[in-house]
Amino acid sequence: MSRLCLGTMNFGPFTPEPQAHTVLDRALELGINFFDTANVYGRTAGKGRTEEIIGSWFARGGERREKTVLATKVHGRWSDWPNDGRLSARHIRAACDASLRRLGTEYIDLYQMHHVDRSTPWEEIWQAMQVLVEQGKVLYVGSSNFAGWHLAVAQAAAAERHFLGLVSEQSLYNLAERTIELEVLPACQHLGIGVIPWSPLHGGMLGGALRRQDKVRSTEEFATEKLDRLGPQLERFEKLAEELGEEPAHVALAWLLHQPGVTGPIIGPRTLEQLDDAVRSLDIKLDSEVLGQLDAIFPGPGGPAPEAYAW
Fold first, then answer.
1. pLDDT at position 212, please?
2. 157 inside domain
3. Residue 173: active-site member
């Protein structure tokens, strides 16, 4: 599948359906065939709206569904009613059927657990997922926001059932947030699990935030706090990108593509122009000197655990 994953969270609340269809078509033209969504995406447009938009795009035919590696997620709560959220067997199976209806498809390529459910035993979770695979409704299962030990426990429980288990983990990972290098990345590489980084530009901070500082400061408070905290590093980073003759966002995405174990970062364009712009990162080759400079600006945790904090 493609080295970049098209995130669809903006479809519905920010990108209307016709424009979203245009972005999806353009992604396939550019060779991006991996699309990520979630059953709760839609926000102000309503939960499930993003899946509905993708479903109406599939309904236009032209082998759109056949050409797409489709990923969606389950966990988010839909109401206060018992079993209408998280990862009980009942909710997993009911949520999958609901996603299939909204998406207008018979199967989901990658069905991801959106978060850990500490209250449901793995035997129950895997029993439900195994039923969906046997029914042909799900091809592969993935996780999101898991710790390294969650991955290990999940795979051990799947092996006891002679079930494939997890094939991917979707984690927060970018130049400014490298915590997963301690445990999650080593666990994924050891267990053969692909890594799909979300927020590759750290909420826009790595996309030239200093140049659009006034715009950033006019948004939510957390973005302002990030800008204040990362200011000196961002200044050095944007200067390095300028020396390379590249946009900061392209360098940040290219850095992720150079990291071992990374399958494909998720990009979340609202417009066709943003999508076309993002693919530039695929052509950028960063040599060891530049990678070293980026490590100096945004130092990681110091390698995998326990070497990062012990002898």
1. 77
2. yes
3. no
Packed helices 248-257 and 288-297: angle between N→C axes, nearest 10 degrees? 110
Report pLDDT for 187: 98
Average pLDDT of the chain is 95
CATH number at residue 110: 3.20.20.100
Cα 181 from Cα 39, distance rounded (Å):
28
**Most distant pair of Cα atoms in the chain: their distance:** 58
Positions of the chain with pLDDT under 70: 214-222
Q: Is residue 296 part of a domain?
A: no
Question: pLDDT value at position 219?
Answer: 55
Reduced 3-state DSSP string for 87-141: CCHHHHHHHHHHHHHHHCCCCEEEEEECCCCCCCCHHHHHHHHHHHHHCCCEEEE
Spatial separation of the C-alpha atoms in residues 286 and 201, rounded to whole Å: 17
Q: Which of 41, 111, 140, 173 is catalytic?
A: 41
237 within some domain: no
Residue range of the domain that includes 69: 5-209+248-286
Residue 243 within a domain: no
* Other CB atoms within 10 A of residue 3 CB: 17
Per-residue model confidence (pLDDT) at position 214: 54
Name which of 64, 63, 77, 76 is nearest 21 in CA terms: 64
φ, ψ of residue 69 to 5 degrees: the values are -95, 105
Q: Which of 198, 179, 213, 191 is nearest to 253 (CA)?
A: 198
Q: How many domains does the chain have?
A: 1
